[in-house]
Amino acid sequence: MGGPALFIGTDEAYVALVRPELDPADPGVRAAAEQAGVAPEEFVGPGGVWAVLLEQDGEGDGFELPGVRDTEPAAFAEQLRAELAGRGGAPAAFTVDGGSVLRLDARPAGADAYAFTAYLTPPEAEAPAGAESGTEGDAPAALTVRTGPVPAAELLADLDAFLETLG
C-alpha cells in the first residue's frame, strides 16, 4: 500500500493522516480480491479518500474523511511545520487547528522533542469504536490521543517528506 501518510506520535500512541493507494497488480491485493470474489480493480475501488488512523493503549481505530482534498492535509502539515521550525531552539507549547476533525496541542518534552495531544472528531456518519455520543442521533464525541515525546527534527523530516508526496 502506498500513498501519502503523516504519522504523529510514537509506536504506542499516534494519530496519522493517510490517503491509501492500493495497486490492483499487488499480489496481496489480488489474493484479497480473489477471496472476496471480485476483480482486483473492483476490490481496490476509486481510492483517493483521506483517513485518520489512531492508536492508544494498544487499541487502534480510524475513520474516513470523505470529501477532503489534498490541500487540507497539506495546510495542516504546513502549519505544524511552521510551528516546529519557528521555535528557534526555545521549545514552547502551541496548537495546530486542522478544522472540525483534528486539533493538535504540542508541549515541550525535553530540549528537542514535543509530546502531542490530538483531539479527533469523526464525521457524523462514521464513528470509531472508542467514540461516544450522548443519545442516538448525536454526533460522536471527540477522541483524545496523547503521545510520548517525538523528536522535533524527526517530525520535521517526516513533514517535509509528506509535503513532497503531495506535490
Task: Outline the secondary-structure elements.
Elements lengths: L4 E5 L4 E5 L8 H10 L3 H5 L5 E7 L2 E7 L5 H15 L8 E4 L4 E7 L4 E8 L22 E4 L3 E2 H15 L1
Helix pairs in contact: 3-4
Summarize this structure as a short list of keywords or feature phrases.
29% strand; single chain; elongated; four-stranded antiparallel sheet; alpha+beta; 27% helix; 167 residues
Helicity range: 25-40%
Beta content comes to 25-35%
- Termini gap: 19 Å
Number of strands: 9
**Computed structural class:** alpha+beta
Low-pLDDT runs of 5+ residues are 131-135
**What is the typical, i.e. mean, pLDDT?**
86
Helix-strand string: EEHHEEHEEEEEH
Largest sheet: 5 strands, antiparallel
Q: Report the principal-axis shape.
A: elongated
The rounded Rg comes to: 17 Å
Give a written overview of the molecule.
The chain contains four helices and nine strands; from the N terminus they run E-E-H-H-E-E-H-E-E-E-E-E-H. It is of the alpha+beta class. The strands form two sheets. Strands 5, 6, 7, 8 and 9 form a five-stranded antiparallel β-sheet that branches. Strands 1-2-3-4 form a four-stranded antiparallel β-sheet. A hairpin with a 4-residue loop joins strand 5 and strand 6. 23% of the residues are buried.
Quick structural gist:
This protein has four helices and nine strands; from the N terminus they run ββααββαβββββα. The chain has 167 residues and is an alpha+beta fold.
